[in-house]
Design goal:
Blueprint lengths: L4 H7 L11 E6 L3 E7 L19 H20 L7 E13 L8 E12 L2 E10 L2 E14 L4
Antiparallel strand pairs: 1-2, 2-4, 3-6, 4-5, 5-6
Amino acid sequence: MLLNIEEIKEYLPQRYPFLLVDRVVEMEVGKSIVAYKNVTNNEPFFQGHFPNKPIMPGVLIIEALAQAAGVLGFKSQEKKPKDGYIYYFVGADDVRLRRPVVPGDQLRLEATVITNRRGVYRFSAKASVDDEVVGTMNILCAERKDDVD
C-alpha cells in the first residue's frame, strides 16, 4: 500500500515543519510499515543543530519513526484525526542511535507491531540510510479520542 504526502496528512495531525514522513512505500495493515523522510538542507532544525555541521537531532529521528508508526496505527484501526482520534507518543525503550543523519540522506522508517492492547501499540522500529542502520528502538503509542472542533 502506497501513500503520498496528501494521503499521509489525512492520518497525521502534524504539519510543516513538524511533519516528518514524506511517503509510505509499504504497509501491511495491522502489521508493518515502511516510509521515508527526505532530509534536506532546508530543514529548520539545521539552523541551530549544528550550523557548521548539520546533523538531524536524534529526537527527531525518534519522532519520525513514531509518526510512521502512527500512520500504521490509524490505518489499522480505520480511524483518522478528523474523526476525533489522535495517537500520542508515550515512550521509547532500547533506543540506540548509531550514526548521524545529514542533509541529502533519505531516512527509511520501518515499524512493526509487537502488541496492540486497547489502542496502546508497541512497535519495533528501525531507521536506516542506504541500508546502514541509523537507529533502533521500541516505540509506544496510545490512541485517544479527542474533541473535534
